[in-house]
């Protein structure tokens, strides 16, 4: 009886093992009998399953079940950029770039207008340097040091310009009494001509016009006084600009090459070779423009001055100097200076002399436009007349007379720089392109000239 509990324990353990084996066999049989679901040919596109938060009982994270095979496939929405037409996308790309460029130009113009005096003085120094630089080079060729050659050239240049200004003022002041008398006589003659003209102008109407002018001057005395004060301010600014231009000219004549090298250091390294090549060409264009303009203006002043002198018009020499100075403003300057000469001739010598002065001015300007400018300027400065008109108008509206003077050389220099940079970029693209080979090499192979032995097969 003592062995009975051990036997029962072994029997219970064996039955437990048999039951576990039977459960394992039943589970295996059920897995073999389960049907395998069919696999679809192309499963629909579904979003990636997202993990669900774990339950409170600590069970494993669940996943979003995939849609069944019979569910209809939903097409994905296209990219918004791809839905916009190609033309509209190109227009938008170009539009925002143009807006950025316009904003940059607006900010640049605002900055320039705030320091307009400094900019115009520096540009005037560039123009004067373009005239005086050959003299410095010639003096250095004679053996003078750079500093002495610069000083001699600058002093001589400024003395000549000062003498020209003094001569004009002296001539005007010396002839102002004679001019006023002739103007008074001319007005009386014009009055008599109007009274006897077929326009039926009466003396009362002429007196009324004179009285209205006198009343207008008396009523606007305050505005005239303020304009005079503004004129004093303009004179002070002009003197300041002249001093800045003088100092800038000295430094440009002495250290122009170093200044240009310093400017090149501000340019990005990749664009530096192209800018370094465009700079000397731009300077040659500017020099050719300034020299040609000086020569043409001098010829205009001499011929028109001689013409109005032999016609007996007073202030012939000051008028010739004014014609020389106004010739630096393309198109507009010639018209203004010629009209001034005609008006002086009209009020001092009469209608016939004024017509003769007009003939002289038009003849000289026609010779200038068709002979002198193409021959003297040549191909160094080639700007379309429409570009000249638009540039002068834009420069005059932006910065007055100084802007009109600077506009055309700026356009000429820009044209030269853009043309060189375009040619330089094309040359770099050809150098970086792979060498032609095979049939492609035949298209770029040099062709012998007509009549050569290679062309004739000899």
TrEMBL record:
Keywords for this protein: Cell membrane, Membrane, Transmembrane, Transmembrane helix, Transport
Transmembrane annotation, as ranges: 118-136, 148-169, 234-254, 288-310, 316-336, 343-367, 387-413
Topology term for the membrane: Multi-pass membrane protein
Organism this protein belongs to: Streptomyces purpureus
Region of interest (Disordered), residue spans: 22-64, 431-458
Location, primary (coarse class): membrane
A cellular component term, taken from the record's GO annotations: plasma membrane
Name of protein: AI-2E family transporter
UniProt KW Transmembrane helix keyword: yes
Biased composition (Pro residues): 35-47
InterPro entries per UniProt: AI-2E-like
GO biological process, one term: transmembrane transport
């Amino acid at each position: 009886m003592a062995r009975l509990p051990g036997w029962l324990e072994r029997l219970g353990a064996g039955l437990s093992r048999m039951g576990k084996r039977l459960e394992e066999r039943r589970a295996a049989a059920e897995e073999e009998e389960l049907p395998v679901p069919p696999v679809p040919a192309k499963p629909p596109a579904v979003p990636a399953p997202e993990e669900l938060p774990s339950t409170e009982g600590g069970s494993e994270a669940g996943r979003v079940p995939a849609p069944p095979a019979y569910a209809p496939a939903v097409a994905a929405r296209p990219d918004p950029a791809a839905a916009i037409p190609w033309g509209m996308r190109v227009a938008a790309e170009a539009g925002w770039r143009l807006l950025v460029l316009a904003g940059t130009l607006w900010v640049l113009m605002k900055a320039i207008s705030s320091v307009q005096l400094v900019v115009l003085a520096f540009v005037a120094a560039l123009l004067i340097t373009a005239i005086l630089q050959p003299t410095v080079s010639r003096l250095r060729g004679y053996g003078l040091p750079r500093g002495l050659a610069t000083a001699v050239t600058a002093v001589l240049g400024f003395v000549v310009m000062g003498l020209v200004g003094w001569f004009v003022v002296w001539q005007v002041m010396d002839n102002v009494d004679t001019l006023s008398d002739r103007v008074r006589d001319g007005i009386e003659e014009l009055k008599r001509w109007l009274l006897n003209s077929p326009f039926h102008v009466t003396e009362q109407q002429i007196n009324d016009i004179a009285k209205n002018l006198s009343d207008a001057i008396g009523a606007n005395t305050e505005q005239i006084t303020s304009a005079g004060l503004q004129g004093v301010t303009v004179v002070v600014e002009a003197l300041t600009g002249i001093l800045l231009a003088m100092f800038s000219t000295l430094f440009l004549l002495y250290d122009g090459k170093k200044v240009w090298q310093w400017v090149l250091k501000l340019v990005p390294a990749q664009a530096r070779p192209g800018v370094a090549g465009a700079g000397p060409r731009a300077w040659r264009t500017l020099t050719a423009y300034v020299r040609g303009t000086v020569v043409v203006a001098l010829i205009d002043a001499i011929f028109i001055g001689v013409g109005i002198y032999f016609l007996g018009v007073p202030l012939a020499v000051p008028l010739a100097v004014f014609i020389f100075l106004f010739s630096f403003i393309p198109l507009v300057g010639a018209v203004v200076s010629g009209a001034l000469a005609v008006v002086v001739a009209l009020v001092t010598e009469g209608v016939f002399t004024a017509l003769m002065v007009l003939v002289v001015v038009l003849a000289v300007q026609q010779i200038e436009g068709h002979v002198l400018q193409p021959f003297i300027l040549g191909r160094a400065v080639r700007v379309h007349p429409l570009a000249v008109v638009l540039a002068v108008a834009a420069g005059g509206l932006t910065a007055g007379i100084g802007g009109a003077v600077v506009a055309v050389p700026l356009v000429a220099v820009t044209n030269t720089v853009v043309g060189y940079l375009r040619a330089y970029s094309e040359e770099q693209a050809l150098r970086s392109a792979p060498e032609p080979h095979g049939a492609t090499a035949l298209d770029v192979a040099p062709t012998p000239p007509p009549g050569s032995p290679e062309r004739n097969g000899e």
